[in-house]
Amino acid sequence: MRVVIAEDNVLLSAGLELILGTKDIEVAAVVTDGPGLLDAAARHRPDALIVDVRLPPSFRDEGIRAALAVRRAHPGLPVLVLSQYVERVYAHELLADGSGGVGYLLKDRVSRVGEFVDALHRVARGGTVMDPEVVDQLMTGTGRNAAVHAAVDALTPREREVLTLMARGLGNREIGERLVITDNAVHKHIGNIFAKLGLPVDDRGHRRVLAVLTYLDSRG
């Protein structure tokens, strides 16, 4: 796998290079701002991007804006975003096109090397990975979107557990192992989630991503 890193903190970017190098992941380029990310993505054609939400010059949302611009220029290019804090709007924007291949992790997760590398591989394969802390905060959020909250409220406690683990990027087998239920039970719960959220019957719409996006909408 080849990646491009957009991170202005030299210590963090160097640490990422070291970690990824030990896992046979090549860092094609390290850039420090949005324009650099756009150029590096076009020049190196990486398998995935690792992007800090906040980059120079204003350190507000340049990273996420650049990542979204890259996704428009190179549809489907996997992006793993790193953030210091839980920022709900950015998590939502990443998922908005429904195509998968996106992740949102807190920077603290980088120190948990196994989890971080696993998340990167999931995203590179087209999966969706949300940091457990992001999901936990969304689960306890109080805001609601009236257009979708009824559908989400219709989920059973077990279906909410399954949806939470889907948001964290777990597959059916891993969800079953985590909840100690059979594969058939997981499949049934996911089917119920899709039906209650009114998602399409085929997979072309990436229903797992859409399910998570619908949940985020309900908490916004």
From TrEMBL:
Where the record annotates domain Response regulatory, the positions are: 2-122
One Pfam family matching this protein: GerE
Enumerate the spans annotated as HTH luxR-type domain.
148-219
Its recorded name reads LuxR family transcriptional regulator
Q: Which organism is it from?
A: Streptomyces natalensis ATCC 27448
Going by the UniProt record, its keywords in alphabetical order are: DNA-binding, Phosphoprotein, Transcription, Transcription regulation
Provide the positions where the record notes the PTM 4-aspartylphosphate: D52
One GO biological process this protein is involved in is: regulation of DNA-templated transcription
Q: Which SMART domains match?
A: HTH_LUXR (SM00421), REC (SM00448)
List, in alphabetical order, the Gene Ontology terms for molecular function in this entry: DNA binding
